[in-house]
Amino acid sequence: MAKTSSIEKNNRRKKLSKQFAGKRAKLKAITKDQSVPMEQRFAAQLKLAELPRNSAPTRVHNRCELTGRPRGYYRKLKLSRIALRQLGNLGLIPGMVKSSW
């Protein structure tokens, strides 16, 4: 089980990235638009830098829904490899069978 503080920190990052997504997208569109004058693009870049760092979606880390483990994460199932194996052995994941040969 991961530390509760790191899980909560990641949840705050998710919340901030959702909150600032629209504003961040507008400012990024202005900075990339070549038809906009250079001064406006630079001002948009400065406003973008003033936003909280944790509002960037790249700062959000994928974590297991059950354990909070940050590594060995399967995106499709939102589980870590360890939790996936445990649930698979218990027969709780449809279509997953423990291999034997």
Helix content: 40-55%
CATH class of the largest domain: Mainly Alpha
Would you report the number of β strands? 2
H and E order: HHHEEH
Question: What is the fold-level CATH name, i.e. the topology of the largest domain?
Answer: Helix Hairpins
Supply the CATH architecture of the largest domain.
Orthogonal Bundle
Whole-number total of structural domains: 2
β-sheet strand percentage: under 5%
Strand order of the largest sheet: 1-2
Output mean pLDDT.
Answer: 94
Structural class label: mainly alpha
Shape: elongated
Q: With helices defined by DSSP (H or I, 4 residues minimum), what is the helix count?
A: 4
| Terminal Cα span | 32 Å
What are the low-pLDDT stretches, counting only 5+ consecutive residues below 50? Answer: none
Give a brief description.
This protein is mainly α and 101 residues long.
SSE topology sketch:
Elements: H1 4-19, H2 21-32, H3 38-50, E1 73-74, E2 79-80, H4 81-89
Antiparallel strand pairs: 1-2
Helix pairs in contact: 2-3
Task: Tell me about this structure.
With 101 residues, this protein is mostly helical. The chain has 2 domains: 1-61, Helix Hairpins (Orthogonal Bundle), CATH 1.10.287.1480; 62-101, 30s Ribosomal Protein S14, Chain N, CATH 4.10.830.10. The protein is 50% helix and 4% strand. The chain has 4 helices and 2 strands. The two termini are 32 Å apart.
